[in-house]
Amino acid sequence: MTMKTVVAAVVCLFASASAFAPSQQSLPSTAVKAVADLEGMVGVGPETGNAIFDPVGLSNWAPADFLRKAELSNGRSAMLAVVGWEVPKVFMFDSSDVGSPDPIKAIMDADPQWWAQFLLLCGMFEAVKYRGELNGKSYTGEGPAVLDWTKTWDTLSEADKQTMRVKELKNGRLAMIAFASFVSNYFIPGSVPLLPEGF
């Protein structure tokens, strides 16, 4: 190996290493506003490094309160999906159109009319949430509840409400990860090391 080859290799290593150095640019004004919007939001904990978890920078493109509403809605849906993934393996209703405990096969076996009814139901829930927000209510726990069937939300102390908000948010996050793991393991067996094949 010649001296020129060694020098060229060292220069290339330093040049490629500089690509990973942090940039010295200042934050744009939208990013500064986004950081300010994220301060004080519920959900910071050891699982997020005791900081707001926004690795993709979505808060630069959408309001933080909109993103939190989306996170809660998706978390609630994921919690139901995880239950729906497991319950048919233990208990099945007699049904003429869906007879498989396999969740993906059951989705494909369902009658299109069922899907139309399901989409209509989801739309009605969204309409109720929207109407409640127009009336000053909240479905994120930040005010009077849009839906409170048990009439217990208003009886809780502020500390208990805060505890419930954190529990719901973190359980929703875990359910989203779990559901993504179930689907990944279903279509790519062995892709989730702790899940058995066919889970």
Write the layout of secondary structure elements.
Elements (H helix, E strand, L loop, with lengths): L2 H16 L10 H10 L25 H27 L12 H7 L2 H23 L23 H30 L12
Helix pairs in contact: 3-6
Distance between the termini: 55 Å
Structural class: mainly alpha
How many β-strands, per DSSP?
0
Average of the residue pLDDT scores? 80
N to C succession of SSEs = HHHHHH
Could you say which overall geometry the principal axes of the C-alpha atoms support?
Answer: globular
Low-confidence sequence ranges: 17-32
Describe the fold and architecture.
The protein has 199 residues and is mainly α. It is built from 6 helices and no strands. It has helices spanning 3-18, 29-38, 64-90, 103-109, 112-134, 158-187. Helix 3 (64-90) packs across helix 6. The protein is globular.
What's this model, at a glance?
This protein is mostly helical. Helices cover 57% and strands 0% of the residues.
Descriptive key words:
about 200 residues; about 55% helix; about 0% strand; globular
